């Protein structure tokens, strides 16, 4: 059984910062790519940031220069530091992890954490 649990969401004002965390636990051998996604009301889920097992990162254009994704492999955890938040960043943020298990690879998702940015 693999669990993916996000934390760190909340309500902030525009210009403030939040740090999201996502911890993976269970019977895993190795975590490959870890990702943050978000889904705003009435919109499709979008990929926000990606970090590979060798720490290569990619970001969607609207968050470049404001968000930073990092990982702590010893803790099976990925972080999303979000600075200079804007009302347009309001969404449910989801973590996903592509994991190597004893019987192959699979992608697992967390339940999401709400981020609300007021103007």
| Helical fraction | under 10%
Cα-atom radius of gyration: 14 Å
Name the shape in a single word: elongated
Percent of sequence in beta strands: over 45%
> Pairing-aware structural class of the strands and helices?
mainly beta
Order of helices and strands: EEEEEEEEEEE
| Average pLDDT rating | 96
- DSSP summary, beta strand count: 11
The tally of helices reads 0
The profile of the biggest β sheet is: 7 strands, mixed
Low-confidence blocks of residues: none
In whole angstroms, the N-to-C terminal distance is: 41 Å
Structure description:
It is a single chain. This protein has 119 residues and is mainly β. The protein contains no helices and eleven strands. It has strands spanning 2-7, 10-13, 18-26, 30-39, 46-51, 57-59, 67-72, 77-82, 91-101, 104-109, 113-118. The strands form two sheets. Strands 2, 4, 5, 6, 9, 10 and 11 form a seven-stranded mixed sheet that branches. A four-stranded antiparallel sheet has the order 1-3-8-7, with no helix packed on it. Strand 9 and strand 10 form a beta hairpin. It is elongated.
What is the topology?
Blueprint: E1 2-7, E2 10-13, E3 18-26, E4 30-39, E5 46-51, E6 57-59, E7 67-72, E8 77-82, E9 91-101, E10 104-109, E11 113-118
Parallel strand pairs: 2-11
Antiparallel strand pairs: 1-3, 3-8, 4-5, 4-9, 5-6, 7-8, 9-10, 9-11
């Amino acid at each position: 059984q693999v669990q993916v649990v996000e934390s760190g969401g909340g309500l902030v004002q525009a210009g403030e910062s939040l740090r999201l965390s996502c911890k993976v636990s269970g019977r895993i051998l190795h975590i490959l790519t870890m990702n943050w996604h978000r889904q705003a009301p009435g919109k499709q889920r979008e990929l926000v940031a990606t970090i590979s097992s060798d720490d290569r990162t990619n970001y969607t254009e609207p968050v470049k220069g404001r968000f930073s994704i990092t990982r702590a492999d010893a803790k099976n955890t990925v972080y999303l530091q979000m600075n200079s938040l804007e009302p347009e960043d309001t969404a449910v943020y989801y973590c996903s992890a592509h994991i190597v298990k004893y019987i192959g690879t699979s992608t697992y998702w967390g339940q999401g954490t709400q981020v609300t940015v007021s103007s």
